[in-house]
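A note from the maintainers: we've had questions about how concatenated examples are separated. There is no special marker in the raw files; a new sequence line simply starts the next protein. For clarity in this README we add a label.
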Amino acid sequence: MKLTTFILIITLAQVSAKGFGQGISLHEDNTPLEKVLESIRKQSGYDFIYNSNDIKGLKISVKLNNSSVFEAIQESIKNLPLSFNIYKKNIVITRKTPVLIDGTKNDPSLIDIADPIKIYGKVLDSLGAPMEGATVIILKKAQESKVGGRQMLTTVKNTGEFEILAEVGDRIIISYVGYQPHSFEVKSKMAYQNIVLRKAQTELKEVVVSTGFQTISKERATGSFGKVDLELFSKRTGSTNLLTRLEGQIPGLYIAPQSRVVNQTGIAEDPKAVVRGRGSVLNSSGPSSNPLYVVNGVAVPNFSSVNLDDIEDITVLKDAAASAIWGARSANGVIVIKTKSGSNNSKLSISYNGSLNYTGRPDVYYGNMLSSQQYIQVAKELFDNPVYRTAYPYTAQSFLAPHERILYDGLRGKLTEGQRNQKLDSLSAIDNRSQIKAMYDPAFTTNHTVSASGGNNTYSFYGSMGYSGMKGNAPGSKSDTYSLNLTQNLNAGNRVKISLNTSLVNMTASSQGPILPGNGFYPYQQFRDASGNPLNMNFMSGYVDSVRLDYQSRSRINLDYNPINEAGLTTNKSDNLSLNVTSNVAVKIWKGLRINGTYGYLRSPSSSRGYTDHQAIGQRRQLVGLTVAPTVNDLPVYYLPTSGGTLGESTSDNRSWTVRHQLMYDDNFRNGKDQLLVQFGNDIQENTASQTNTTLLGYNDALGSFAELDWAKLRSGIFPTVTGFGSYSYIPIDRKPRTKSRFLSYFALASYSIERKYSLDLSWRQDFSNQFASDLSSQKKPVWSVGARWQISKEKWLSNVKWLNNLGLRATYGITGNTPYGQVSQYDIVTTLNPATNFFYNQIAGEALYLTGIANKGLDWESTDNYNLAIDYAIFNNRISGSIDAYKRITTGMIGNVTLNPLTGYNSIAGNIGKMLNEGIEMSIRSLNIKGKDFSWSTTIGVGFNHNKLISYQTPSNNSKTVAARLQSEYVIGYPMNALWAYRFAGLDNLGDPQIQLANGTVTKKPNAATVNDLVYMGTTQPPVTGSLSNTFSYKGFNLSANMIVSLGGVMRKSVNTYYSGKLGGTSGSFSGGNISEYFLDRWKKPGDEAFTNIPSYEPSASLNTSRRSVNYYTFADVNVVNASYIKIRDISLSYALDTKLLQFLKIQRASVFASASNFLVWAANAEGTDPELPGLSSGTMPVKHTYSLGINFSF
């Protein structure tokens, strides 16, 4: 009989199955069969698979004592039109429905028994990975079959392939935990089945989590883990940075938005990751505040050696039970990556992933800056004030911008008022932003990865070749990344497994010198003439015309300044290579007992090269400063090369190796009801780093030659030069001392699970390091954790609560640690000194040693106590599920700079300086809102709240106790690490001067009147609340997802006007002009305006401005601190997966295409509409536009 409807009920995550012969007792009288089967399930742990319609209305009476599972089922369905099969821990029950020849009744002799058909196929997920363990079920059409009952159910091999016998009319169902089942009807002719399973929107939980030491079921894990959605991760192709792609996926993982801006080289900066709040002080001696990064079980400094298309799994370890096994470097969390590998007995499979990403030019119109018309109006308004002209009278040495020259020429009578106004109006009509925009190009990123995998009985492999190319917004900025990856697995007999992963990544990048067209130019400045030729802007060269012409004539060096041509005179290149080799050897000793060995080697040589041609304005000015030419007629004497350029090179080499051995025991007890896992091991790691910096002058890039110079004379200075006096103090060769850190660790893990209801995890680790004091009390600081889990929903007293599918309680406590970086050691660090190449010490005769770092004999580990309490839940047939975690982290012995007595010759030393608290709540919710035959809509919500407070802190220096330091978010006891402080603004007085209110209530405008006690805490710049909202809509092969990022509770300083005094456009002898904020238009102008504005008045006299008042009272006032909360659509993606029939016609395994768009601001809390992710334009950065992506992937 052809099935038109069916419901497949798979009860997941039940108590461990009892043995096949375990006693089953039943005493039922006229009881529904469904209830009897449920009783058998509870007593045995076996799961049932059946069509609910097949057993609907059936009642039985049965009495059994201490019977086997087989006997219990056989007796229960006796005399019923049902049959059953047992496969591993699953029992399949089907209805006996014979297929009869037309016109017959129930004569068994006339039953038509069809010939069986062999069906072959392969089951993959949407990313093309084989789905080992997927279940293949046959819902039978006939009562009897030549196939036999044993073929009713099978599982997919580790290659993803399956082979099964069935009959025409049977229905095949392929299912996998957390994925939508796929079914098809058996025809007389069956092609090879390429089946792609899609994630079910009712997905309860990630099945397993990886710590880098072991892979465990999340159902029994006590720790706090976060699993990354790799489908969303793979679609974020607009970024080649792994951390950026993680944004919004894990509650409690905050990705700082550095990558949302374009820096002066036109390349986006790297983001930073923070797990559950900042846990370390940021300074030269302190540990890194980033999480520990792990790839294939080995700690790495970054993810540069990973092709993002090769990633199979990403897990974030957040609490001590999850991360403590990583010891003294896990306090700030751990991000664990596992890369793809091949499968045994699988055919050769070749895949391609490719994408093209487009980002528009930076938004040059962003920011509240004056237009040309407004700027000229302000210039006229200021200049027409006699006080301004008195403060800045015209002299031959005056620095004059174009608009100022017009104003002074009008004042001196060289222009009539009409001519003056006409020229100023001409400047007012110019808007240079279109020319600035033309200086930038659209940015493009392309990603291509070709991979192959396959294997036989003993050997399997996965290999890939990747390329990622980026062309930045700034001309000449680009990068190219090439990657090779090969993972090989060998089964050397039944007891030994060997794996070897080798990855090689080479990244080259190049950029030109920056033009800096932000606020450094006037809004009317044209960069090119009408014919497109670059224009000189000599008034920006740093010299007034008379001085520039004098220097130029005597030195015979042209001092014209052309910003467009300047950009191409400086080039920067970098070349980074990353080699990562990881091997694993597993040896089975006895049942459940094995030895694992992990061996890793990482090397990352890199070089950077900066070359500035001698024609660059900076080189020419430097040459003039070291040229002797008393008069125009004297032949100049040059102390620096007049040809070639300046070459700066830096080379570094970082190496690390890891050796880890683990003795592991993993087995089940009490007929599979309990599970015990124990492992012991040791871990050895060494990291070394070296660096050399070289500066060469007069370098000929074509010949590779450079000038030999008298460095000692250059350092002592030349007098008299064209500019008066000149010196040069660069070190031609600067070798940094090689740093080496070593770690020796011993660890132990133990976990025990009882009936999958109660779990206990224990971990212990002892780390030794050469970075800490040799005192045993400092060395012996064990890192350990304990965690417990109670799976409440498995209790018998909740078995009748049908709407509750899962309820678990987790509690953990543990101690994790962190280590410093850089030149920190229990010993003094010395390095060699060569006076011939280091002229700062040229008075020394011969080679010598000098101290680069001094030891702290009492330096101790940075230690963090971690508390975590959590609930996992799923309700309403798993339509709603999620977890809630509450945590507390107390960090003691924070490592930072400790001030030393000046008589020691050193300012500070690394030491333990403070204590810090982080506490918060994390919540995740997954819901299936609509589930139809072809359409579904699901929602995922993630929220993280973090409260950070500095409990104690040893201030590094007295200078940090000043008002200026605290206004720059200096660390203050009792407040967050990212605290923002401000003055209490008390309005303007009748002169337009800003006033503040001191702590004692006094109102003042006197400069330097405030102390740190007079500042007010405004909040934290790191948002306390971060979250994400994702909606996914699926219709047949189409998938539409929208992912929103939420940031709440942070604060930021408003970008306000900073120009309140001085000459508009620059001062004599230097260019310090540029555009100013349009807030200047709303400044105080006359008495009474203080009732309507908070913006201070303009005071022409710079000396009076600083003696009478402090404009910082306004710029750093509480009224200029605004809410930094925002909501953004980080990305929207539409994908389409080709239908199975089309795939079979095209003879490919899978294929999909997608399009996405990213970075759309939805809402910002501040009234100005400022994007909180972007800094002010004065930083030389500009916001990036939206990114649009197209991608395709397929396998065959």
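[label: protein 2]
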Amino acid sequence: MDHFSDDELVSKITRIKSSDEYASYTAKLDEIAPDLTQADRNLQSHLSALLDEQRKRRTADDDGKLDAILKTVGASAPVKRKLQRPTSWTSGGFVHSKAGGSKQEDLSCKRQFEQVDKADNFFFDAKSELEATLEVPESISEDNLKKLKKAKAALDEGMSWAEDQAQLIGIAFIKYGWPTATEFEGEPVVATEEAEKKLKKARKVVAERLAKIEKDRNAKKPKIGDKPFVPKGGRGAYPYAQQPQQQEFLDCPSEFDEAAAVQTPVSPRITGRLRQRVGFWRTFASSLVVSWIIFGVPLTWISAPPPARFSANSPSAVAEAEFVSAAVAALVESGAAEEWLSQPAVVSPLAVAYRDTGPAPFFFTKITNELAARWRSQGAGLLHYLDDFLFIQRPLGRPFAAEQAAVLQDVADSGFLINQEKSVLGFQRLIEFLGIGIDSTRGVFFVPQKKWDSFQARLAHTLGRQRTSPRELSRLAGKIQSFSVALGKVCKMFSRELHFEVERHSSWDIVIPLSEEVAGELQFWQSVGRRQFEAPIWPVFVAFQNRIWTDAGGTGWGAVLEAVDGRPKQEARGHLSLAEREESSTLREMVGYLQALRSFSGFVQGTTIKLYTDSQAGWQILEKGCSSKHHLHRLVVDIFWECTRLGVSLYPVWVPRELNAQSDYLASIFDGDDWRLNPYWFRLVAGEQLVQPPVRHGWKAFGGSQAVLCGGYLQSTFWGQLEVSPRDPLEQELLRSMKEDMVSTRALGSWSSSYLGAFGRFARWCADRQPPRESCPASALTVALYLRFLTDRADSFSVVKTASGAIFAVHDVALVPRDLNPTKAELCKAVREQAKRKFGLGVRKRKAAMPVELLAAGVRMYASGDSKGRFSLFRLTVACMAAVMWVGCLRYSDMQMVWVGALRIYPTHMVFLLCNRKNDVYREGDVVYCARGGKWFCPCELSERLIAAGGLSGAVNLFQSWDGRKAVRDPQVPLSGRHIEYHACRREIIRMVAEGAGRTEQEVQAAFGTQSMRSGGATVVARKLSFEEFMRHGHWVTPAAAMRYVEPSTEERVAVTAGAGH
């Protein structure tokens, strides 16, 4: 099949638009437009006078005449708007492209055809409305009547010309294909008879070519089009030709039907039915949809060639090699593709899409939406998806027979055909639509039996094999999601594990075993019935017997039960575990929901409950029935099973915090004397795997408050074996204080953000095993299995490393001997080494050292005032902070400990005490000296100015935070008294350096950070001090650590090899 390029097509259309007929019509339209406007104005004036006269002597007999006049006035206004020439048109509506003139070749085909259709719509609508308006009173002047007749004749001539041009372009572009357009040469069509002669000649040439192609194709083996093609794997025929909605977008002559039938025989061609009835579509559809019906959906042309690219075929093409070979051969035979012998610029990969219809459903839906909007405007109730329509009879609407007749008539007028075999045209109360059953008698949606049986068969196959692939799991999840209309939020609740498992893998077709969580969800769906969960069609009003108000705080949860029948209120509260306190507020709220249900189980069993919460995140999770966070979703499932056990229906409602004050008060109560055992020990004692009690003297293991707050690792066997006399209070006090001090000296406080959270996750993982495993003391096998579990799910080695370090630290605090620590076992070392090789250690991108020139420019600008010359206290704070960090080689944590009361400024230098530096293991403290200089970034001078301007004294931070929003409006905003947060410190230093250097913040942030201050100062002083003085000034412990902060210059690096003799 031959194709035109953009240049050739533009040239042909330009020749059409430059014809004499076109110019003649344009001149006539320009000539009559003023006359028609004046005639319309005279007509309006005449009708207004007639209306005034009618108002003076109006009678009942004149009502009919008055109505006719009003209709005439209403119809003439659109005519005036139609005949006003659009300002964006030139020469009557089109942009000309003449030889030798300005370049218009870049006009796309889409733009040209849209303009032709626009002109066609213009003439059609103007002619129709003018004809409707010409029914005027007999008293109109003869002059105006002549002008209107002249305008009508001109419009008739223009309409005829537009139809001829649209016919020519339609022939060339769509109706009979590009082979016919190639044969159809010559000047624009003037006479219909001449056009028909050329058209017949062109079609004859194309028919001869097609006959030859068909003859050659039938001689080849195998005959692809003789029977339906079933690709490898039994997935069915290639779906493109089977989709009925595609037929409206395949605009080829009828002779192409047989050549295009590659995969399977199709129904008789119905191409052009909508185009033949475009008059009906014009009455209600948008101009865009009408243009699609006339000319088809335009393709987007690429103006510039894509970059050279050579890609391998996708795995789907390799798996379906037989199908791909047959499809390519069919494309070559039909002329849609050809063999290319030279080196191509782009090689696109081949892929097989199963049941993929591309963008066709989008355009088809846009077209059928116009019909749906028409029927809805007429009062019909319907549901619509692609080519499926479900009509709902309204109680007070039109009779069923009348509405059915109107709809069927519209379908026939539009050009669509009804599939009688798949359609139900009678009135039904029980029907299946889009795979969902609808029972209007009971008012519920349900899953059809056939669809449910197919799903159960797939479930049984997957569970029977105990192995599957991410693609199969994705299909099962999609199948479950398709039930959501009928089954409700339980579909999302019991399909999240399937989604989690699919997201863990990067390949669709690898074979994976069924995890315990995935198998649990599949077994759930295998055990329930299709009628067990049914969603109502109409809103259901529920009478609530109980109301529960819940809230959770930092350490506990609280709940209030209020019965509708007047029973006394019930209150409940409880403590959160140490691991739960470290989690998000949403998790704590959901733990409160679950604990409230368990606490009030004796009062709410078998009732309907309205649950009030002030957490929007928790309310939304319960409302949806799922969460994208794994730990939150598990709590949703636990709440579901708790409601199932109690036989309650739970309806969550969000309320503002002010209306939840009582449960908020209960959640904030903390009872230090509330001693309780960890539930894990109760489960362990009740289990069948008990060999000996893990605590020798359990009552002694809870002798101090830390034993409860530290979540269980002090209640270990080894602390229990430290026996003291129960009669000696001194020994008991010494043992208690020894535990607490040993925990504090091992820097337990520094674990809280990483180690305690990591060990809490390890403890929960151990508790979830069947039977549960001990987390402390843990066996080497338990730790190795957990590290392997993290290796399969983590993205970096740091996750495995942190977990191993947390387990080691907790066992070390619990006095487990080093040689018995499970993380030191060879098995655990092997797992860590495997994880390290899998992820790699990665490359640490260290920030560059801050050059003194950039720092000096930024400090000078900030210390001298803002952009308007006004003194700014917070800008002075940033300048002083950067200078002190650079000169003193301070980290951010060191800068936080610079107190005004521990700072002394002398004429020659400044000295301040840092009581607790990062590597100060024995808390000896460190004194930092800074000499006074004569430049802008002298820390002594800047500190004096900051203390004087801010009025700072005593035990307060020298560098304090401020209100950033107020500082923008008022530079004199006071400091807050609190230390500067890390993000504010980093942001303001970057902003200061960027402003001083005249660069963007993004450029500076990519190169420098807060550590750049420390490394910048260290790089400068390292060249001027002895090594011992350098180590003392920066308070480094090892030489290796110190040298990481020194950036050697290019000259120093080159000097190493300067004496090599080369």
